[in-house]
Amino acid sequence: MLAVVTVYPIVRVIALSLERRVPIFGIADFVGLANYAFLARDGAFWGAIRVTALFTVASVAAELVLGVAAAVALRAQRRGVAISLSLLLLPWCLPGVVTGRIFEWIYHPSAGLMNRLVAVVASAQPNWLGDPRLALPAVIAADVWRTTPFIALLVYARLVGVPAAVYEAAAVDGAGRGATFWRITLPLLRPVLLVALLFRTLDAVRAFDLMFILTGGGPAGVTETLTLYAYHSLFQTLQLGFGSASAVVVGALVVALAWGHLAATGERDAV
Amino acid sequence: MRSSGLADALVLGGVTLYATPVVWQLATSLTASGDPADVMAGLSLAHYRAVLGASPMPRALANSVGIAAAVTLLAAALAAPAAYALARLPVAGRRLLLLGIVLSTALPTVATVAPLYLIVRALGLRDTWLAVILADTSFALPLSIWLVVGFIREIPRELEEAAAVDGAGRLAALRHVLLPVLAPGLAAASLLTFLFAWNEFLLAYTFTATEASRTAPVALALFPGVFETPWGDIAAASMLASLPPILLVLALRRHLVRGLLAGSLKE
Fold first, then answer.
1. Domain ranges in chain B?
2. Contact residues, A window 124-163, toward B, CB-based 8 Å cutoff
3. How large is the angle between the packed helices A186-206 and A226-235, nearest 10 degrees?
4. Which residues of B touch A248 (CB under 8 A)?
5. Do A8 and B15 touch (CB under 8 A)?
6. Measured in whole angstroms, how far is the alpha carbon of residue B205 from the centre of its chain?
7. At a CB cut-off of 8 Å and minimum separation 6, what does A193 contact?
8. Given pLDDT bands bounded at 50, 70 and 90, which one contains residue B217?
9. Taking 60 as the threshold, does the pLDDT of residue A251 lie above it?
10. pLDDT tens across B149-184, in order?
11. Which residues of chain A are within 8 Å of residue B257 when distances are taken between CB atoms?
12. Does CATH place domain B62-264 in 1.10.3720.10?
Protein backbone atom coordinates (compact mmCIF):
# COMPACT_ATOMS: atom_id res chain seq x y z
CA MET A 1 0.00 0.00 0.00
CA LEU A 2 2.74 2.40 1.01
CA ALA A 3 4.59 1.39 -2.13
CA VAL A 4 1.61 2.38 -4.24
CA VAL A 5 0.73 5.73 -2.71
CA THR A 6 4.19 7.05 -1.87
CA VAL A 7 6.86 5.26 -3.88
CA TYR A 8 5.06 5.17 -7.24
CA PRO A 9 4.67 8.99 -7.46
CA ILE A 10 8.37 9.42 -6.61
CA VAL A 11 9.46 7.06 -9.38
CA ARG A 12 6.96 8.65 -11.73
CA VAL A 13 8.04 12.23 -11.06
CA ILE A 14 11.63 11.32 -11.88
CA ALA A 15 10.49 9.67 -15.12
CA LEU A 16 8.34 12.71 -15.93
CA SER A 17 11.29 15.03 -15.42
CA LEU A 18 13.02 13.29 -18.33
CA GLU A 19 10.12 14.00 -20.69
CA ARG A 20 8.77 16.95 -22.58
CA ARG A 21 5.19 16.70 -21.49
CA VAL A 22 2.42 19.18 -22.21
CA PRO A 23 -0.93 17.38 -21.82
CA ILE A 24 -3.08 20.03 -23.51
CA PHE A 25 -1.16 19.53 -26.76
CA GLY A 26 -0.87 15.78 -26.25
CA ILE A 27 2.93 16.07 -26.15
CA ALA A 28 4.91 13.34 -24.35
CA ASP A 29 8.45 12.87 -25.68
CA PHE A 30 11.50 11.47 -23.92
CA VAL A 31 14.14 14.20 -23.84
CA GLY A 32 16.66 12.85 -21.34
CA LEU A 33 18.30 15.49 -19.21
CA ALA A 34 17.24 18.42 -21.41
CA ASN A 35 14.88 19.79 -18.72
CA TYR A 36 17.70 19.85 -16.20
CA ALA A 37 20.01 21.52 -18.72
CA PHE A 38 17.37 24.20 -19.24
CA LEU A 39 16.99 24.64 -15.47
CA ALA A 40 20.73 25.18 -15.11
CA ARG A 41 20.59 27.98 -17.71
CA ASP A 42 17.46 29.66 -16.31
CA GLY A 43 18.23 32.79 -14.30
CA ALA A 44 14.86 32.57 -12.52
CA PHE A 45 15.79 29.11 -11.21
CA TRP A 46 19.02 30.39 -9.65
CA GLY A 47 17.07 33.35 -8.32
CA ALA A 48 14.65 30.90 -6.67
CA ILE A 49 17.56 29.00 -5.12
CA ARG A 50 18.92 32.28 -3.72
CA VAL A 51 15.50 33.28 -2.33
CA THR A 52 15.01 29.83 -0.78
CA ALA A 53 18.45 29.98 0.86
CA LEU A 54 17.87 33.51 2.22
CA PHE A 55 14.38 32.66 3.45
CA THR A 56 15.52 29.43 5.10
CA VAL A 57 18.61 30.79 6.85
CA ALA A 58 16.96 34.00 8.06
CA SER A 59 13.72 32.49 9.28
CA VAL A 60 15.25 29.41 10.91
CA ALA A 61 17.91 31.48 12.70
CA ALA A 62 15.32 33.93 14.02
CA GLU A 63 12.98 31.12 15.08
CA LEU A 64 15.68 29.26 17.00
CA VAL A 65 16.76 32.35 18.96
CA LEU A 66 13.20 33.48 19.71
CA GLY A 67 12.06 29.92 20.44
CA VAL A 68 14.78 29.33 23.03
CA ALA A 69 14.10 32.72 24.64
CA ALA A 70 10.37 31.96 24.82
CA ALA A 71 11.02 28.49 26.28
CA VAL A 72 13.33 29.86 28.99
CA ALA A 73 10.71 32.48 29.88
CA LEU A 74 7.97 29.82 30.00
CA ARG A 75 10.13 27.63 32.24
CA ALA A 76 10.44 30.50 34.72
CA GLN A 77 6.67 30.96 34.80
CA ARG A 78 4.98 29.67 37.97
CA ARG A 79 1.27 30.02 37.33
CA GLY A 80 -0.70 30.13 34.09
CA VAL A 81 1.70 27.93 32.07
CA ALA A 82 -1.26 26.09 30.50
CA ILE A 83 -2.67 29.40 29.27
CA SER A 84 0.70 30.43 27.83
CA LEU A 85 1.12 27.10 26.02
CA SER A 86 -2.38 27.31 24.55
CA LEU A 87 -1.82 30.89 23.35
CA LEU A 88 1.52 29.88 21.83
CA LEU A 89 -0.03 26.94 19.98
CA LEU A 90 -2.57 29.27 18.37
CA PRO A 91 -0.30 30.64 15.57
CA TRP A 92 1.17 27.17 15.02
CA CYS A 93 -2.13 25.36 14.39
CA LEU A 94 -3.67 27.89 11.98
CA PRO A 95 -3.91 26.83 8.33
CA GLY A 96 -1.08 28.45 6.32
CA VAL A 97 -3.64 30.14 4.08
CA VAL A 98 -5.23 31.79 7.14
CA THR A 99 -1.83 33.04 8.31
CA GLY A 100 -1.29 34.39 4.79
CA ARG A 101 -4.63 36.21 4.83
CA ILE A 102 -3.95 37.58 8.34
CA PHE A 103 -0.59 39.05 7.34
CA GLU A 104 -1.87 40.27 3.98
CA TRP A 105 -4.29 42.43 5.98
CA ILE A 106 -1.68 43.47 8.56
CA TYR A 107 0.65 44.59 5.74
CA HIS A 108 -2.13 46.46 3.88
CA PRO A 109 -0.56 49.75 2.70
CA SER A 110 -3.24 52.11 4.06
CA ALA A 111 -5.42 50.23 6.55
CA GLY A 112 -3.01 47.57 7.89
CA LEU A 113 -1.86 47.28 11.48
CA MET A 114 1.82 47.71 10.52
CA ASN A 115 1.35 51.07 8.86
CA ARG A 116 -0.97 52.27 11.63
CA LEU A 117 1.89 51.58 14.04
CA VAL A 118 4.43 53.14 11.66
CA ALA A 119 2.25 56.26 11.39
CA VAL A 120 2.72 56.86 15.12
CA VAL A 121 6.47 57.37 14.72
CA ALA A 122 6.98 58.31 11.04
CA SER A 123 5.14 59.76 8.09
CA ALA A 124 6.27 57.07 5.62
CA GLN A 125 3.73 54.39 4.71
CA PRO A 126 5.76 51.54 3.22
CA ASN A 127 4.17 49.06 0.85
CA TRP A 128 5.40 45.97 2.70
CA LEU A 129 4.53 43.34 0.13
CA GLY A 130 4.91 45.52 -2.96
CA ASP A 131 8.37 46.96 -2.32
CA PRO A 132 11.10 44.60 -3.61
CA ARG A 133 13.34 45.50 -0.65
CA LEU A 134 10.67 44.80 1.97
CA ALA A 135 8.70 41.87 0.55
CA LEU A 136 11.07 39.05 1.53
CA PRO A 137 11.66 40.33 5.10
CA ALA A 138 7.87 40.75 5.45
CA VAL A 139 7.24 37.15 4.37
CA ILE A 140 10.02 35.92 6.67
CA ALA A 141 8.47 37.78 9.62
CA ALA A 142 5.14 36.04 9.00
CA ASP A 143 6.88 32.65 8.85
CA VAL A 144 8.81 33.35 12.06
CA TRP A 145 5.58 34.30 13.80
CA ARG A 146 3.93 31.08 12.70
CA THR A 147 6.69 28.62 13.57
CA THR A 148 8.57 29.99 16.59
CA PRO A 149 5.96 28.39 18.91
CA PHE A 150 6.91 24.92 17.64
CA ILE A 151 10.53 25.43 18.68
CA ALA A 152 9.50 27.04 21.96
CA LEU A 153 7.38 24.00 22.75
CA LEU A 154 10.10 21.46 21.93
CA VAL A 155 12.72 23.34 23.93
CA TYR A 156 10.31 23.89 26.81
CA ALA A 157 9.59 20.14 26.97
CA ARG A 158 13.35 19.48 27.23
CA LEU A 159 13.82 22.13 29.93
CA VAL A 160 11.03 20.60 32.01
CA GLY A 161 13.01 17.35 31.99
CA VAL A 162 16.11 18.93 33.52
CA PRO A 163 16.29 18.13 37.26
CA ALA A 164 16.22 21.22 39.48
CA ALA A 165 19.32 19.83 41.24
CA VAL A 166 21.42 20.70 38.17
CA TYR A 167 20.59 24.39 38.57
CA GLU A 168 20.93 24.29 42.35
CA ALA A 169 24.42 22.85 41.99
CA ALA A 170 25.30 25.63 39.54
CA ALA A 171 23.99 28.24 41.97
CA VAL A 172 26.03 26.71 44.81
CA ASP A 173 29.11 26.92 42.60
CA GLY A 174 28.39 30.62 42.23
CA ALA A 175 27.41 30.57 38.55
CA GLY A 176 25.51 33.68 37.47
CA ARG A 177 22.48 33.69 35.21
CA GLY A 178 24.48 34.22 32.05
CA ALA A 179 27.02 31.53 32.88
CA THR A 180 24.25 29.08 33.80
CA PHE A 181 22.55 29.66 30.47
CA TRP A 182 25.67 29.36 28.28
CA ARG A 183 27.44 26.61 30.24
CA ILE A 184 24.52 24.44 31.38
CA THR A 185 21.22 25.17 29.67
CA LEU A 186 22.49 25.49 26.10
CA PRO A 187 24.64 22.30 26.10
CA LEU A 188 21.67 20.38 27.53
CA LEU A 189 19.51 21.72 24.71
CA ARG A 190 21.95 20.74 21.96
CA PRO A 191 20.17 17.53 20.87
CA VAL A 192 16.70 19.08 20.83
CA LEU A 193 18.01 22.15 19.00
CA LEU A 194 19.56 19.92 16.32
CA VAL A 195 16.20 18.23 15.82
CA ALA A 196 14.40 21.59 15.73
CA LEU A 197 17.00 22.87 13.25
CA LEU A 198 16.35 19.94 10.93
CA PHE A 199 12.55 20.12 11.16
CA ARG A 200 12.45 23.85 10.62
CA THR A 201 14.99 23.79 7.78
CA LEU A 202 12.92 21.15 5.98
CA ASP A 203 9.73 23.13 6.54
CA ALA A 204 11.34 26.36 5.36
CA VAL A 205 12.61 24.76 2.14
CA ARG A 206 9.14 23.25 1.61
CA ALA A 207 7.23 26.45 2.46
CA PHE A 208 4.59 27.34 -0.11
CA ASP A 209 1.26 28.62 1.25
CA LEU A 210 2.55 31.85 2.80
CA MET A 211 4.31 33.20 -0.29
CA PHE A 212 1.56 31.92 -2.54
CA ILE A 213 -1.02 34.01 -0.66
CA LEU A 214 1.10 37.01 0.33
CA THR A 215 3.07 37.75 -2.84
CA GLY A 216 2.68 34.92 -5.34
CA GLY A 217 6.47 35.14 -5.68
CA GLY A 218 6.54 38.86 -6.53
CA PRO A 219 7.38 41.68 -6.71
CA ALA A 220 9.78 40.91 -9.56
CA GLY A 221 10.42 37.41 -8.24
CA VAL A 222 12.09 38.53 -5.00
CA THR A 223 9.97 36.09 -2.96
CA GLU A 224 9.80 33.27 -5.52
CA THR A 225 11.14 30.22 -3.70
CA LEU A 226 11.96 26.90 -5.36
CA THR A 227 8.54 25.48 -4.44
CA LEU A 228 6.74 28.42 -6.07
CA TYR A 229 9.05 28.21 -9.09
CA ALA A 230 8.28 24.50 -9.45
CA TYR A 231 4.55 25.05 -9.00
CA HIS A 232 4.48 27.88 -11.53
CA SER A 233 6.32 25.86 -14.15
CA LEU A 234 4.07 22.86 -13.47
CA PHE A 235 0.65 24.43 -13.47
CA GLN A 236 0.76 27.92 -14.98
CA THR A 237 1.88 26.54 -18.30
CA LEU A 238 1.17 22.85 -17.63
CA GLN A 239 4.70 21.85 -18.65
CA LEU A 240 4.61 18.75 -16.50
CA GLY A 241 8.00 17.47 -17.68
CA PHE A 242 9.97 20.66 -17.10
CA GLY A 243 8.06 21.41 -13.89
CA SER A 244 8.83 17.91 -12.62
CA ALA A 245 12.54 18.53 -13.10
CA SER A 246 12.38 21.49 -10.70
CA ALA A 247 10.14 19.48 -8.34
CA VAL A 248 12.75 16.71 -8.31
CA VAL A 249 15.39 19.28 -7.39
CA VAL A 250 13.32 20.46 -4.38
CA GLY A 251 12.53 16.89 -3.32
CA ALA A 252 16.15 15.74 -3.65
CA LEU A 253 17.38 18.78 -1.72
CA VAL A 254 14.99 18.10 1.16
CA VAL A 255 15.65 14.36 1.31
CA ALA A 256 19.40 15.02 1.18
CA LEU A 257 19.07 17.40 4.12
CA ALA A 258 17.13 14.81 6.12
CA TRP A 259 19.62 12.07 5.22
CA GLY A 260 22.56 14.28 6.12
CA HIS A 261 21.03 15.03 9.48
CA LEU A 262 20.33 11.37 10.25
CA ALA A 263 23.88 10.46 9.29
CA ALA A 264 25.46 13.33 11.23
CA THR A 265 23.58 12.70 14.45
CA GLY A 266 23.90 8.94 14.26
CA GLU A 267 20.13 8.57 14.49
CA ARG A 268 20.22 6.33 11.46
CA ASP A 269 21.13 3.54 13.84
CA ALA A 270 18.07 4.30 15.96
CA VAL A 271 15.97 3.42 12.92
CA MET B 1 11.82 33.62 44.04
CA ARG B 2 11.14 37.31 44.48
CA SER B 3 8.40 38.98 42.47
CA SER B 4 7.44 35.76 40.70
CA GLY B 5 3.96 37.22 40.27
CA LEU B 6 5.40 40.04 38.18
CA ALA B 7 7.45 37.58 36.09
CA ASP B 8 4.33 35.47 35.46
CA ALA B 9 2.41 38.56 34.39
CA LEU B 10 5.22 39.55 32.01
CA VAL B 11 5.30 36.12 30.34
CA LEU B 12 1.50 36.03 30.03
CA GLY B 13 1.54 39.57 28.63
CA GLY B 14 4.22 38.52 26.16
CA VAL B 15 2.34 35.51 24.80
CA THR B 16 -0.87 37.56 24.61
CA LEU B 17 0.95 40.24 22.61
CA TYR B 18 2.25 37.43 20.42
CA ALA B 19 -1.33 36.50 19.54
CA THR B 20 -2.02 40.08 18.30
CA PRO B 21 -2.28 39.12 14.59
CA VAL B 22 -5.09 36.66 15.40
CA VAL B 23 -6.83 39.17 17.67
CA TRP B 24 -6.57 41.83 14.94
CA GLN B 25 -8.22 39.46 12.45
CA LEU B 26 -10.90 38.55 14.98
CA ALA B 27 -11.60 42.25 15.67
CA THR B 28 -11.80 42.90 11.91
CA SER B 29 -14.33 40.11 11.52
CA LEU B 30 -16.51 41.45 14.35
CA THR B 31 -16.84 45.10 13.29
CA ALA B 32 -19.50 46.16 10.80
CA SER B 33 -17.08 48.52 9.04
CA GLY B 34 -14.28 45.97 8.80
CA ASP B 35 -12.00 48.45 10.60
CA PRO B 36 -10.68 46.92 13.84
CA ALA B 37 -10.33 50.42 15.33
CA ASP B 38 -14.15 50.51 15.54
CA VAL B 39 -14.28 47.45 17.77
CA MET B 40 -15.09 49.59 20.82
CA ALA B 41 -18.09 51.11 19.05
CA GLY B 42 -19.91 47.77 19.10
CA LEU B 43 -19.62 44.25 17.78
CA SER B 44 -21.44 42.99 14.73
CA LEU B 45 -21.92 39.56 13.20
CA ALA B 46 -22.65 41.03 9.77
CA HIS B 47 -19.51 39.56 8.18
CA TYR B 48 -20.25 36.09 9.55
CA ARG B 49 -23.80 36.33 8.24
CA ALA B 50 -22.47 37.38 4.82
CA VAL B 51 -19.90 34.57 4.71
CA LEU B 52 -22.29 31.87 5.94
CA GLY B 53 -25.23 33.12 3.86
CA ALA B 54 -23.74 34.06 0.51
CA SER B 55 -20.25 32.70 -0.06
CA PRO B 56 -18.65 29.35 -0.97
CA MET B 57 -17.38 28.99 2.62
CA PRO B 58 -20.15 26.80 4.15
CA ARG B 59 -19.78 24.22 1.40
CA ALA B 60 -15.97 24.42 1.65
CA LEU B 61 -16.08 23.88 5.43
CA ALA B 62 -18.30 20.81 4.91
CA ASN B 63 -15.85 19.51 2.27
CA SER B 64 -12.96 20.05 4.66
CA VAL B 65 -14.68 18.21 7.50
CA GLY B 66 -15.43 15.23 5.25
CA ILE B 67 -12.00 15.12 3.62
CA ALA B 68 -9.98 15.62 6.82
CA ALA B 69 -12.06 13.01 8.68
CA ALA B 70 -11.65 10.48 5.85
CA VAL B 71 -7.88 11.08 5.63
CA THR B 72 -7.57 10.67 9.40
CA LEU B 73 -9.50 7.38 9.44
CA LEU B 74 -7.79 6.01 6.35
CA ALA B 75 -4.29 6.90 7.59
CA ALA B 76 -4.95 5.37 11.03
CA ALA B 77 -6.44 2.20 9.52
CA LEU B 78 -3.43 1.76 7.22
CA ALA B 79 -0.73 2.96 9.59
CA ALA B 80 -1.65 0.73 12.55
CA PRO B 81 -1.18 -2.65 10.81
CA ALA B 82 1.84 -1.43 8.82
CA ALA B 83 3.47 -0.11 12.00
CA TYR B 84 2.72 -3.33 13.87
CA ALA B 85 4.35 -5.38 11.13
CA LEU B 86 7.41 -3.13 11.09
CA ALA B 87 7.74 -3.10 14.87
CA ARG B 88 6.99 -6.72 15.71
CA LEU B 89 7.11 -9.06 12.72
CA PRO B 90 10.24 -10.29 10.89
CA VAL B 91 9.80 -8.09 7.80
CA ALA B 92 12.52 -8.46 5.18
CA GLY B 93 14.49 -5.25 4.68
CA ARG B 94 12.90 -3.58 7.69
CA ARG B 95 15.74 -1.13 8.32
CA LEU B 96 15.70 0.05 4.73
CA LEU B 97 11.90 0.39 4.80
CA LEU B 98 11.99 2.43 7.99
CA LEU B 99 14.73 4.64 6.60
CA GLY B 100 12.63 5.17 3.47
CA ILE B 101 9.62 6.05 5.60
CA VAL B 102 11.55 8.58 7.67
CA LEU B 103 12.99 10.19 4.55
CA SER B 104 9.60 10.34 2.82
CA THR B 105 8.14 12.28 5.76
CA ALA B 106 10.46 15.04 4.54
CA LEU B 107 9.11 15.02 0.98
CA PRO B 108 7.48 18.33 -0.07
CA THR B 109 4.02 18.10 -1.66
CA VAL B 110 5.22 19.94 -4.75
CA ALA B 111 7.69 17.12 -5.46
CA THR B 112 5.05 14.56 -6.42
CA VAL B 113 2.07 16.75 -7.26
CA ALA B 114 2.62 16.28 -11.02
CA PRO B 115 2.37 12.45 -11.12
CA LEU B 116 -0.52 12.60 -8.62
CA TYR B 117 -2.22 15.06 -10.97
CA LEU B 118 -1.81 12.66 -13.90
CA ILE B 119 -3.15 9.75 -11.81
CA VAL B 120 -6.14 11.80 -10.68
CA ARG B 121 -6.88 12.80 -14.29
CA ALA B 122 -6.47 9.26 -15.61
CA LEU B 123 -8.88 7.93 -12.98
CA GLY B 124 -11.39 10.68 -13.74
CA LEU B 125 -11.21 11.90 -10.14
CA ARG B 126 -10.63 15.61 -10.78
CA ASP B 127 -12.69 17.81 -8.49
CA THR B 128 -13.78 14.98 -6.18
CA TRP B 129 -13.24 14.41 -2.48
CA LEU B 130 -11.55 11.12 -3.30
CA ALA B 131 -8.73 12.84 -5.23
CA VAL B 132 -7.84 15.07 -2.28
CA ILE B 133 -8.28 12.22 0.22
CA LEU B 134 -5.90 9.90 -1.65
CA ALA B 135 -3.29 12.60 -2.23
CA ASP B 136 -3.41 13.80 1.39
CA THR B 137 -3.20 10.22 2.69
CA SER B 138 -0.10 9.52 0.61
CA PHE B 139 1.61 12.37 2.44
CA ALA B 140 0.19 11.71 5.91
CA LEU B 141 0.93 7.98 5.94
CA PRO B 142 4.73 7.95 6.40
CA LEU B 143 4.62 10.17 9.50
CA SER B 144 1.71 8.17 10.96
CA ILE B 145 3.54 4.88 10.49
CA TRP B 146 6.76 6.29 11.91
CA LEU B 147 5.00 7.66 15.00
CA VAL B 148 3.02 4.49 15.64
CA VAL B 149 6.11 2.27 15.20
CA GLY B 150 7.70 4.30 17.99
CA PHE B 151 4.64 3.98 20.23
CA ILE B 152 4.42 0.19 19.68
CA ARG B 153 8.11 -0.22 20.52
CA GLU B 154 7.48 1.47 23.87
CA ILE B 155 5.00 -1.28 24.76
CA PRO B 156 6.70 -4.33 26.31
CA ARG B 157 6.48 -7.46 24.17
CA GLU B 158 5.66 -9.44 27.30
CA LEU B 159 2.16 -7.95 27.22
CA GLU B 160 1.27 -9.74 23.98
CA GLU B 161 3.18 -12.86 24.98
CA ALA B 162 1.19 -13.08 28.20
CA ALA B 163 -2.02 -12.86 26.20
CA ALA B 164 -0.77 -15.65 23.94
CA VAL B 165 0.00 -17.82 26.97
CA ASP B 166 -3.55 -17.22 28.15
CA GLY B 167 -4.69 -18.83 24.91
CA ALA B 168 -5.59 -15.71 22.97
CA GLY B 169 -4.89 -15.85 19.24
CA ARG B 170 -2.65 -13.20 17.70
CA LEU B 171 -5.56 -11.09 16.42
CA ALA B 172 -7.45 -11.31 19.72
CA ALA B 173 -4.28 -10.31 21.57
CA LEU B 174 -3.91 -7.33 19.26
CA ARG B 175 -7.49 -6.17 19.68
CA HIS B 176 -7.89 -6.66 23.41
CA VAL B 177 -4.36 -6.14 24.71
CA LEU B 178 -2.26 -4.04 22.34
CA LEU B 179 -4.90 -1.70 20.89
CA PRO B 180 -6.09 -0.27 24.23
CA VAL B 181 -2.51 0.48 25.31
CA LEU B 182 -1.77 1.97 21.92
CA ALA B 183 -4.89 4.17 21.84
CA PRO B 184 -3.30 7.41 23.19
CA GLY B 185 -0.46 7.10 20.67
CA LEU B 186 -2.90 6.51 17.82
CA ALA B 187 -4.89 9.53 18.99
CA ALA B 188 -1.77 11.69 18.92
CA ALA B 189 -0.85 10.51 15.41
CA SER B 190 -4.46 10.98 14.23
CA LEU B 191 -4.57 14.53 15.58
CA LEU B 192 -1.45 15.44 13.59
CA THR B 193 -2.95 13.79 10.49
CA PHE B 194 -6.20 15.72 10.89
CA LEU B 195 -4.37 19.03 11.29
CA PHE B 196 -2.26 18.27 8.21
CA ALA B 197 -5.31 17.34 6.11
CA TRP B 198 -7.33 20.34 7.32
CA ASN B 199 -4.52 22.83 6.64
CA GLU B 200 -3.16 21.30 3.42
CA PHE B 201 -3.39 23.73 0.50
CA LEU B 202 -1.23 22.85 -2.51
CA LEU B 203 -2.76 19.43 -3.25
CA ALA B 204 -6.33 20.53 -2.58
CA TYR B 205 -5.83 23.63 -4.75
CA THR B 206 -4.49 21.52 -7.63
CA PHE B 207 -7.06 18.72 -7.62
CA THR B 208 -10.23 20.76 -7.07
CA ALA B 209 -11.98 22.97 -9.59
CA THR B 210 -15.38 23.94 -8.20
CA GLU B 211 -17.27 24.35 -4.95
CA ALA B 212 -18.08 20.63 -5.11
CA SER B 213 -14.75 19.71 -3.56
CA ARG B 214 -12.82 22.88 -2.66
CA THR B 215 -11.58 22.79 0.92
CA ALA B 216 -11.72 25.69 3.36
CA PRO B 217 -8.12 26.87 2.76
CA VAL B 218 -8.70 26.80 -1.02
CA ALA B 219 -11.98 28.71 -0.73
CA LEU B 220 -10.26 31.24 1.55
CA ALA B 221 -7.38 31.69 -0.91
CA LEU B 222 -9.87 32.25 -3.74
CA PHE B 223 -12.30 34.30 -1.65
CA PRO B 224 -14.30 36.39 -4.11
CA GLY B 225 -14.09 40.18 -4.19
CA VAL B 226 -15.62 42.01 -7.12
CA PHE B 227 -14.28 45.57 -7.05
CA GLU B 228 -12.48 45.74 -3.75
CA THR B 229 -11.15 43.17 -1.30
CA PRO B 230 -13.82 42.46 1.35
CA TRP B 231 -11.45 42.44 4.34
CA GLY B 232 -14.21 42.01 6.92
CA ASP B 233 -15.66 38.99 5.12
CA ILE B 234 -12.20 37.50 4.59
CA ALA B 235 -11.48 37.95 8.29
CA ALA B 236 -14.71 36.16 9.22
CA ALA B 237 -13.94 33.36 6.73
CA SER B 238 -10.41 33.03 8.21
CA MET B 239 -11.80 32.65 11.71
CA LEU B 240 -14.29 30.00 10.53
CA ALA B 241 -11.55 28.07 8.71
CA SER B 242 -9.37 28.20 11.85
CA LEU B 243 -12.01 27.15 14.33
CA PRO B 244 -11.70 23.33 14.00
CA PRO B 245 -7.89 23.23 14.40
CA ILE B 246 -8.01 25.71 17.29
CA LEU B 247 -10.72 23.78 19.15
CA LEU B 248 -8.99 20.43 18.58
CA VAL B 249 -5.62 21.71 19.72
CA LEU B 250 -7.08 23.29 22.84
CA ALA B 251 -9.08 20.16 23.69
CA LEU B 252 -6.29 17.67 22.94
CA ARG B 253 -3.20 19.68 23.86
CA ARG B 254 -1.64 16.85 25.82
CA HIS B 255 -2.04 14.33 22.99
CA LEU B 256 -0.65 16.88 20.56
CA VAL B 257 2.45 17.55 22.62
CA ARG B 258 2.99 13.80 22.95
CA GLY B 259 2.78 13.36 19.18
CA LEU B 260 5.10 16.29 18.47
CA LEU B 261 7.68 15.10 20.97
CA ALA B 262 7.52 11.51 19.75
CA GLY B 263 7.97 12.68 16.18
CA SER B 264 11.02 14.71 16.94
CA LEU B 265 12.74 13.12 19.91
CA LYS B 266 13.35 9.61 18.71
CA GLU B 267 16.05 7.99 20.73
1. 4-44, 62-264
2. 145, 150, 153-154, 157
3. 20
4. 111
5. no
6. 16
7. A64, A68, A155
8. very high
9. yes
10. 988 988 888 887 787 777 777 778 778 888 888 888
11. 153, 157
12. yes
